[in-house]
Amino acid sequence: MKDAKQKTDVPHGTLGLMVLKTLDVIGPLNGYAIARRVEQISGDLLTVNQGTLYPVLLKLEQEGAIESEWGKSVNNRRARFYRVSRAGRKLLQAETRDWEKTTAILGRFFELTAEDLT
Amino acid sequence: MRRLKRFLARAANFITRRDDLRLREEMEEHLCEQAREYVRAGMSPDEARRQAVLKFGAVEAVREEYHSEQGIPLLEELAQDIRYALRLLARSPGFTITAVITLGLGVGVNASLFSLIYAVGIRYLPVKDSASLVSIYQQYRGQVHARGVYGSSYYLSYPEYANYRDRNSTFSGLAAYAESGFALGGTDPQPVSGQLVSCNYFSVLGAEFSVGRGFNSDDCRASAAPAAILSHRFWQSHYGDSRSVIGNTLTLNGQTVTVTGVAPAGFSGTELQVPDVWVPVTAAPQLLPITFGSRDWLALGNVSWLQVIGHLKPGISRRAARSELAVLARQMDAIYPGRQTVVIVNAGSFVNNPEERADGLWIGVAVFMLGALVLTMACTNLANLLLSRGARRQPELVTRLALGATRRRLLTQLLTENMLLSALGGLAGVAVMLWLTKVIAHVLPGMPSGPLPLNLTPNLATLLFALMATLMAALLSGVAPALQATGPNLLTALKEGGAAAGHGRRRARLRDLLVIAQVAGCALLLVLAGLLARGLRRTEIIAPGFATQSVYVLSFDLSERGYAGTRALEFARELRERLGAFSGTGGVASSTVLPGISADLTGVTIPGTDHPEEQVLANYVSADYFRTMEIPILRGHGFTGEELHAGGLLPALVSTAMAQRFWPAENPLGKEFLGGQNRRYQVLGIVPNVSTLHLGQEDGPIFYGLIADTGAAADAKMFLRANRDASSTVSAIPVVVRQIDPNVTVTTESYQQILSEQLLPARRGAILVSALGLLALVLAVVGVTGVVSLATSQRVREICIRIAFGARRHDVLVLLLGHGVKLVAIGLVAGLALAAGSAVLLASNGLLFGLSPIDPAVFLGTASLLFCSAVSSMLFPALRAIRVDPVVALRYE
Predict the structure, then answer these.
(1) How many Å apart are CA A22 and CA B787, to the nearest integer?
(2) What is the CATH number of the domain that holds A92?
(3) Tens digit of pLDDT for each residue in B794-849?
(4) Is the CB of A13 inside 8 Å of chain B's CB atoms?
(5) Does A44 touch chain B if contact means CB atoms closer than 8 Å?
(6) Which of B112, B186, B272, B351 has the fewest CB atoms within 10 Å of its CB?
(7) pTM for this structure?
(8) Number of domains observed in the structure of chain A
C-alpha cells in the first residue's frame, strides 16, 4: 500500500480546472490526450480514473467553457477535440486568481509559528 | 450565467432525449489509444486492452454519471414515475374509472355550485362594458319618514333617480327599472314577465338594435301611447323572427301597446328574471292602474321602488361616484329633517342589492357546506380505493423495497400516481361542471322565462376553484393511503412473505372510520332532503283552512299619508263597504297579518284563576273576515258589528285549540280572558284551527279580535275574495280607493302568488339537497362495496379453512357481514343525530312547514333505505367469497 500513499485523489471540482488549464496551454486535444497530459503534469501523482474525465468535459462544455468538434486522431481515426472558448479563458483566469488567493492564505497559516501570535 | 447555460443545455438534451452515442465512441477511441500505448511499451494486445480498460475505470459508472450530467435526473425520475403510473392505471381500468368518476363528481358538483354562486353574486352582468357598470342603492339613518317600500327599502324613488341622473358628473349614464308582471292578450290572457324602464335603459346598457329601435323621448312622455320592446326570445317564440312585428300592437293588461323594437339576441337585461317585454316607466299608470294608477308615482319622493344602474365614466372609481352622489343625497335630505341618506354603490353583478347580498351570503355558505360534504365523501371513497389498492400492491412494494428502492422513492411513486389520478379526476370535474351548470341554469325552478341569463363560461376564477378543489381532494384522499402503504409495516410484511400484507390493524381502522363517515354524511343529506320534500308536500296536501283561490291582498300606504287610529279604521270601513257592493265580490275583510305567513304573538291570562300567562297567536280582523276567508264558525256566532266596545268586554273568537287549552272541561262560550295589552275579551264563538303561522302546520291556540278594538288599523291588509269576473272587480279597486282619498296608493296582489313565492326558497333547497343526497348515496354504496369486497378478498384463506373444517356457509356469511353491518349502523346513528340537529335549524327558519324536525317517516325511511343499499352492496362480494371452492383456493395459496 506504499504506492497508494504517494498518489493522491483529485480534489473534488479541481479536475475541471486542470482540464481548462491544459487546453489553454497546449491547445485543442482529444479526451485521451487530455487524460495523459493531466497525468504527466502531475508527475503521475494524481490517480485519475480516466473515465471520470468525460462527465467533467461534458459539464464544461454545457457551461460553455470549452467547445468540441470531430477531428482526426493521431492514428487517423475519428476523435472529439476540445478547446477553450473565450468564456472558458475568463473562467480560468477567475478560478486561477481564486485558487492563488486561497493557497496564499493557507500558506500564511502553514508558516505560522508560536512567536507570530504573541 | 454559466449555471443558466448548463441548465438550458441539460433541458435541451432532456427534451430531445439525447443519447450517449458520442460518449461511447469517445470511450472506444480512448481505450484504443491507451491500448496502442501499452502495446508500444511491449504488452501483448490482449493484455494491453485489459490494462487500458482497468485504467479507464468502471464504464457503466462513467456512463451513468455522464447521463445525469447530460439531462435533468429529477425530471427523468418524474417522467419515469408518470410513465409507470400511466401503465399501472391503464392495467386496472376498473379502479381508474371508478376513481376518476368519483373525484370528477365531487369536484364537478363543487365547481358547479361555485360557478353558479360566482355568476349570480360576483361576476359582472352580461352586458357591454360591464366592468364599469355599478348599481346604486340608498339606506337611511336617523329619522326615517314613513317611506313606502315596494320590493326593497334600498330602492330609489323616481325624483331621487332623476336628481342623481341629471346632476352627476361621474356617470356616463344612469338608468332605472322596476320589475313587473303583465297579462298578455285580451281574452284568456297569459302571464309574461316585464320591466318598467327609464327611457335611457337600453342606451346606458349599450344594447344595439337591429330590429326596430330603443325608446325615444316621444315614447317617454307621460301622455304617449305605451310603447314596448320585446326580448329576443319572446320575439322568436311569438313572432317567429318576423321583422314586420315593428309597429304591431299587443295587449298588455288590457291596454294596447305598440312594439317599437326587439332587444338584440344576447341582451338579457340586469335581472335574473329575463323580461319578455320592456315598457317605459312613464307608461306605468296606463298599464298598471291597480298599482300605479292612484298616484303620480314619478312625482313621489319618499317611496322605494326603482333599481338604478349606471356606467361610470372612464377612470372614475366607485368611491368617487359614491361621494358625489352622497352630496346630492344630502340636498334631498333637507326636505326630511333628521334623515340621513347613505348612498351605496355596488359593482354590477346580478345580486347586488345589499339586502339580497346579506341573505345570499348565508345561502352561499350553506350551499358550500353541502358541497364540501359531498366532496369529502368523494375523497373518502377515493381514499378507500387507494387504501385497498395499496394493500393489494403490498407484495410489489415489498419486492421493490427489497431490491433497493428507498422508501422515499416508493412514496414519490405512489404520490405521482395519485396526482395523475387527481389530474384526470379534475379534468372530469371540469367536464361535469360545464354540463351541470347548464342543467342547473335550465331547471332552476321559478324561472318561467327560459334559462337564467347567467354567464357560466369557465374563467380563471372558476377553473382556479376547480383546481383548488382537486388539489385538496388529492391531498385529503392520497397522502394517508400512500404513507400507510409505504409505512414501517412494509418490512414486517416482507418477512411474512407478502401473504398477510394488508392486514395491518391501523389500515383497517382508518378504512372503518372512512366507511362510518361516509354513511353518516349520506344519512345527513338524505334526511335533510326528505324533510324538505315532505315539508313542501304538506303545504300542498294540508288545506290551510282558509280560502286562497281568487283571493286578492290589498296593501295601502296609509301611515305614510298620515292616517292613524279612527281615521284609518274609517277609511278601511268605507272601502270595504264600497268594494263589497260590487256583484263580483264574494267578501272583503281587513286583517293585521297574512295567514299562512305570519301571526301576532301575545300573552293571555284568565282572570280569576292562577293560570300563568301564556303566549298565544292573535289576529285582529274586521267582522267579515270569517265569511271572506271561508272559515266556518263551529259554535256560538261571529262578530256582529264594528262598533267600538270601549270600557266593556271585547268580543273574541277562539280556535278549538285555544278553547281546549284554556277551558278543556267547560263550555268556552262566554268565558273571559285578558289578552293583547290587558284588553278584556269574552269568547263569542269557536272557529276551527287553521294554518296561520306556517303553511302546512295547524296553529296552536289563536284568538281573533276586532281591529276596531285595537285602534291600530293603519298597517292592516285587506282581503278581497272575488266570486266571478275577478278582473273587473280587481281593476275597479284603485278607482274606488281614489274616490275615497286620491292620495292613498293601493297595491293588489294575488294571495296564491304571495303564498307560492313564500315557498320558493324551500323548493329550491329541496331540489338541491335531494340531488346532492342521491349523489351521496351512490358514493356511499360504491365506497361500502369497495371496502367489504377488499376485506373479504383478504380473508379468503380464513374462509376456506373455516369451510374446510365444516363451518356452514351461512355462518361464514354472518361473520363476513357482521363487521360491515356494525360500521353502517354506527355511521347511520351518527348521521341521523347530525341530521336531527340540522333539522331543528331548518324548522326554526320555517322551512319545514310544521313537519316535525324528527319526522319518523323520513328518519326511518332514510335509515332503512341506506341500510338496505349498504347491506345489499356488501352482500354481493360476501356471497362471492363463500362460493369459492376451498380446495381450489387453498391449493392456490
Answers:
(1) 68
(2) 1.10.10.10
(3) 777 777 788 878 888 788 888 878 888 888 899 999 999 999 998 888 888 777 77
(4) no
(5) no
(6) B186
(7) 0.68
(8) 1
